[in-house]
């Protein structure tokens, strides 16, 4: 599987994400600096990691979304290439318009860093094919801007079209309708605040993140 991890100034989960992809898919992703303007030919996965791109200045993900590489990412997403945005990656995907809504400051105004209970949503996507709908899983979160919001029409559309990928099963950050992750209409773009790449082997305390990459591998490769 040919993949790339996009690296922005301030990304800090890029290497963890690359390790997860390498361990699970057996192929090493290319680390792609945000100033690049093209993606490798025949790419199977674009991964946008967590972190604090541009120090979260202006709004988390807002400046990274205007990076040179993002035009190629948007074009690839429109062609159906799988795009995975985790945490700051999710923020970058909403800021770039690939996913609807916005991630505001957590309701409690604090940085939340712990494992949380999640419920797998109804989204049909290569990214969730390794889980069953309604399954209870746990994944770590680490963010201060994870409070997902969108206007009621958008939320109804997301639910009506079955585009909720993950919901919080507990109160974490105030996200509307407990949304922790969503996909685009085609299902090839996933944004999620929890970190699947941090829970891929028992030594990390669990493997609930592993199946996201395994499901993708089965569908894509
Ligand atoms: N781990 C992360 O990606 C952090 C995301 C973001 N900068 C926030 O704190 O909201």
UniProtKB/TrEMBL annotation:
Statement: the UniProt record of this protein carries the keyword Protease: no
Signal peptide span: none
Keywords, comma-separated and alphabetical: ATP-binding, Cytoplasm, Glutamine amidotransferase, Hydrolase, Ligase, Nucleotide-binding, Purine biosynthesis
Localization of this protein: Cytoplasm
GO cellular component, one term: cytoplasm
GO molecular function: ATP binding; glutaminase activity; phosphoribosylformylglycinamidine synthase activity
InterPro entries cross-referenced by the UniProt entry: Class_I_gatase-like, PRibForGlyAmidine_synth_PurQ
Catalytic residues identified in the record: 87 (nucleophile), 195, 197
GO BP term, example: 'de novo' IMP biosynthetic process
Domain of life (superkingdom): Bacteria
EC numbers: 6.3.5.3, 3.5.1.2
Pathway(s) where this gene product acts: Purine metabolism; IMP biosynthesis via de novo pathway; 5-amino-1-(5-phospho-D-ribosyl)imidazole from N(2)-formyl-N(1)-(5-phospho-D-ribosyl)glycinamide: step 1/2
Transmembrane annotation, as ranges: none
Catalytic activity entry: L-glutamine + H2O = L-glutamate + NH4(+); N(2)-formyl-N(1)-(5-phospho-beta-D-ribosyl)glycinamide + L-glutamine + ATP + H2O = 2-formamido-N(1)-(5-O-phospho-beta-D-ribosyl)acetamidine + L-glutamate + ADP + phosphate + H(+)
NCBIfam families assigned: FGAM_synth_I, PRK03619.1
PANTHER family assigned: PHOSPHORIBOSYLFORMYLGLYCINAMIDINE SYNTHASE SUBUNIT PURQ (PTHR47552)
Function of the molecule: Part of the phosphoribosylformylglycinamidine synthase complex involved in the purines biosynthetic pathway. Catalyzes the ATP-dependent conversion of formylglycinamide ribonucleotide (FGAR) and glutamine to yield formylglycinamidine ribonucleotide (FGAM) and glutamate. The FGAM synthase complex is composed of three subunits. PurQ produces an ammonia molecule by converting glutamine to glutamate. PurL transfers the ammonia molecule to FGAR to form FGAM in an ATP-dependent manner.
HAMAP family: PurQ
Self-association state and partner proteins as the record states: Part of the FGAM synthase complex composed of 1 PurL, 1 PurQ and 2 PurS subunits.
Protein name (Swiss-Prot/TrEMBL): Phosphoribosylformylglycinamidine synthase subunit PurQ
